[in-house]
Amino acid sequence: MAFSRVALAAAVVLSATFAARAQQPGANFPEGLGKQTVVSVCNGCHDINRLTAGYSPNGWLTVTNMMRNFGAPVPDDQWDTVRAYLIKSFPERPRPPAVIVPGPVQVDIHEWPLPTPGSRPHDPMAARDGSLWWSGQLANKLGRLDPATGEFREYPVNPVSAPHGLVEGKDGEIWFTGNFRGFIGRLDAKTGDVTEYQIPDAKAKDPHTLVIDHNGIIWFSVQNGNFVGRFDPTTGAFKLATPPTRNAKPYGMAVNSKNVVWFVEFGANKIATIDDNMSIHEFQLPNESARPRRIAISPDDMIWYSDFARGYLGRLDPATGEVKEWPTPSGPKTQPYGIAATKGAIWYAETFVKPNTVVRFDPKTEKFQSWPIPGGGDIVRNITVSKDGNPVMANSLDNELGLVEVKSGAN
Ligand code: HEC
Predict the structure, then answer these.
(1) Nearest-CA residue for atom 34 of ligand 1
(2) Which of 3, 20, 156, 224 lies 20 to 30 A from 304 at CA?
(3) Residues with CB under 6 A from ligand 1
(4) 377-380, long-range: CB < 8 A, 24+ apart
(5) Is the pTM of this model over 0.90?
(6) Are 365 and 321 within 8 A, CB to CB?
(7) Going from the N-terminus, what domains does the chain have, and what CATH number goes with each?
């Protein structure tokens, strides 16, 4: 009796083990040397199925460098095996070809490979002294480039901070979001010292983009935590607000000429403002499936957005609530992402085409023009504007910083 109960218990344990094994994430991945390591490690921080998106061999080199930088626990002598397994098992899938639209404007596109392989430059930033910056999200570094000399300097931040958005403060200090550790950081660019201001709500765990308003107040989005935050650098005080929409996923942000703070909701078809009382006012876009990811504001205070999900450039007139949309040249599946308003036009990137493109849209003629990004551009997650008014890009998978030098033909 006792014996059979033990046998039964053993059988139950055994079948539970089999069931667990069958359901183990990645269990259905192709067989091959390295699979075991991949299956046991690559599910640790995110869904393992994101591997199946597939990358070129070079893309996998960057991805594995990024994961290594970020501390994925693969023994040093196993990385080559893991990489070979990934290259063989998950090749890049076909992507839409870029549709290049000719036009009257001349540009030179400059690309600088960054010093640390696999940095994942997420956001670019242009400082008042002419230097260009990036957040090396997975290298846990901020970086500065002097585009005149090509000289780089990298600034380490604390491990696992995953620096994401960055802006320059009034004294030349750099403010950034610690995307994995829930803080707003301040880098003293002279000394390299970093101060962390912890957001006083554990639910606001993934601060994302930040902007600085005309009074020096820092506003930030918290994508998955679903907040918009306000941080006063002189007092260190935080305020948080949750949008009325569930899972709104506040994402890109911008400040208009009258100091109104705008943000887009990537989890909804909405664009919103927030004021000093933390009151949020949402505007709904007409198409249910629209997913605005980034936002730019032109000098006339029109709101422009990249509709990542549907492949549109959109414009919201805040005075009337009227929305106008234009399909992006390369088509619906091409993921318009980083966007900026400068030199009398709207500039944005199509980030799922081969190669990525820079697209210019002239609001007067409503005409597009576009260029392939040398080297592929993958993936332009954000665009900002240099001191001279030129678009600046961070190319996250290509590990490059880019500058679109507008030469002639622009207004
Ligand atoms: C220590 C945590 C961690 C582990 C372990 C980890 N990753 Fe990641 N991975 C990240 C982070 C952080 C990102 C980027 C942020 C995000 O989008 O989630 C990321 C993103 C990715 C991406 C998307 C890249 C991009 O630029 O969009 C791929 C592909 C990926 N990981 C593959 C892997 C593989 C393969 C492994 C196993 C070798 C692995 N990851 C293990 C943290 C990890």
Answers:
(1) 42
(2) 224
(3) 38, 41-42, 44-46, 50-51, 63, 67, 70-72, 74, 82, 86, 120, 138, 162, 396-397
(4) 377/349, 377/351, 377/402, 378/59, 378/351, 379/337, 379/351, 380/337, 380/338, 380/349, 380/351, 380/356
(5) yes
(6) no
(7) 2-89 (no CATH), 106-408 (2.130.10.10)
